[in-house]
Amino acid sequence: MDEKIIIENVCQEKGVKILDNISAKVYDGEIFSIFGPSGSGKTTLLRLINRLDEKTSGHIYLDGVDIDEMDVITLRRRVGMVFQLPALLPGKVYQNILFGPGLFDRSKRDDTALALRYLKLVGLDEELLDRDGETLSVGQQQRVSIARALANEPGVILMDEPTSALDLTATLKIEELIKRLNRELKVTIVIVTHNIEQAVRVSDRSMLIVRGRKIEEGKTKDMLKNPKEELTEEFISGHLEEVR
Ligand SMILES: Nc1ncnc2c1ncn2[C@@H]1O[C@H](COP(=O)(O)OP(=O)(O)OP(=O)(O)O)[C@@H](O)[C@H]1O
Ligand SMILES: [Mg+2]
Q1: Is the CA virtual torsion 102, 107, 111, 114 positive or negative?
Q2: pLDDT of 56
Q3: Which atom of ligand 1 is nearest the CA belonging to 212?
């Protein structure tokens, strides 16, 4: 499999060391999860991948190109982001979905057929297209956020705990959606979760980060069945909570 993202010796410091020499690979077409306790640096690392934040040192490559050499708008078009909370923009659902494409191509701004295609793709009903985003349930809003990310036709979508505001039923449905989109669109997905069960349900491979350091990386199921590191065992057994 081709390498989609290469993370190479990445450090991040803001007075304190937040990420300490992280290296990892995400392969094309896989679902990769980053898990670890609260405060371990998961969100920070995710944000570095589409340059919502700057690294102190190290490199990140997308399809073999250093992301620091890329125009940031192009990078964000190719690497979409879904946040922990849906964060819809004020306005209609279709305006939200078309936000990204509209930035790049003005003719797409009112392209309701395009908006409808992505609305359906994330499993929402056509009648929601013209609704105000804020009138939707949180689960529906998260689907719209995913549709908005997909509408740019990115090669990668980064998701930061996308189900943390949802109950179990809605969580499982979003997980099914994530897997279906990965399968059907061949989009590479990097998902941050603090929940091991979620990592097992959705991801092919994973890495565990604790206190800004990578502890282990590998196939999710192998890692959990046969952890190589003591910290992985501790995390699996729930004994590793807040560590900072
Ligand atoms: N701007 C900043 N200045 C100083 N410290 C920061 C800054 N941003 C994040 N941190 C610290 O970096 C560490 C990692 O934060 P991060 O948000 O990446 O953790 P996380 O693994 O996503 O945690 P959670 O599971 O709670 O979301 C935390 O200790 C946090 O307080
Ligand atoms: Mg976080």
Answers
A1: negative
A2: 98
A3: 14
